[in-house]
């Protein structure tokens, strides 16, 4: 581990899941607990970084020393990232971002009607935060994404690495309850352009966060 490997670096980290409102009381969400992103924020602080943590709703206490920005929707997360990316040296997107949102928000609670046997929601795509940022980054800025996959982990992850112009991608299999969403442990494969994939054993999210921070500090020194 490189001691203070991120000293004087400004690191922007996203954590938790985003929520898309259907009506005033309902939303589309996902199973992200924020544990992975918060662990990365803690590791980056330990390595000397100035951390801004953009977080969806979680039950976690943010690490001491992080500047915390709370968001609910993908749009709010996108705005917070856009506002803070320019002055950051690295962006790490561990958040589970909604890919779809209701096409229309209904501003009163949707009622069941006697004649209804169901409800059809029409969804539209949300903005892809990391892809937008990938197109704006300047020399020296490092963008790290995650890939949550349930099948064809490496193929799908490699496609994301290229499409979203990331400097590093951390792929995890989210079909196993013991790793991925909400667990204390994870198992990831680090993908860097032009390098062989590197799979970790199952480890705590804190240990994975330390490995990730170490890899990022090496990228800065290249
Ligand atoms: O929070 P935990 O319970 O600890 O769980 C951790 C985790 C499983 C959420 C985390 O390890 C993880 O995999 N995060 C990424 C989840 C995700 O949205 O993956 P994706 O493969 O759908 O997206 C790929 C990348 O694009 C991600 O970096 C994501 O943040 C980003 N993205 C996705 C959609 C979108 N509209 N905008 C984005 O920027």
Give the topology, please.
Elements: E1 10-15, E2 20-23, E3 26-28, H1 35-46, E4 50-55, E5 67-70, H2 74-85, E6 90-93, E7 100-102, E8 123-125, H3 129-134, E9 142-149, H4 153-163, E10 168-173, E11 185-186, E12 188-191, E13 198-199, E14 203-204, H5 205-221
Parallel strand pairs: 1-4, 1-6, 4-5, 6-9, 9-10
Antiparallel strand pairs: 2-3, 7-8, 10-12, 11-14, 12-13
Helix pairs in contact: 1-5
Description:
This protein is of the alpha/beta class and 222 residues long. It has a single domain (10-101, 124-221), classed as 3-Layer(aba) Sandwich (Rossmann fold). 26% of the residues lie in helices and 26% in strands. The chain contains 5 helices and 14 strands. The strands form 4 sheets. Strands 5-4-1-6-9-10-12-13 form an 8-stranded mixed sheet, sandwiched between helices. The chain has a two-stranded antiparallel sheet with strand order 2-3. It has a two-stranded antiparallel ribbon with strand order 7-8. Strand 9 (142-149), helix 4 (153-163) and strand 10 (168-173) form a beta-alpha-beta unit. Helix 1 packs across helix 5. It is globular, with a radius of gyration of 18 Å. Ligand PMT binds next to helix 1, helix 3 and strand 9.
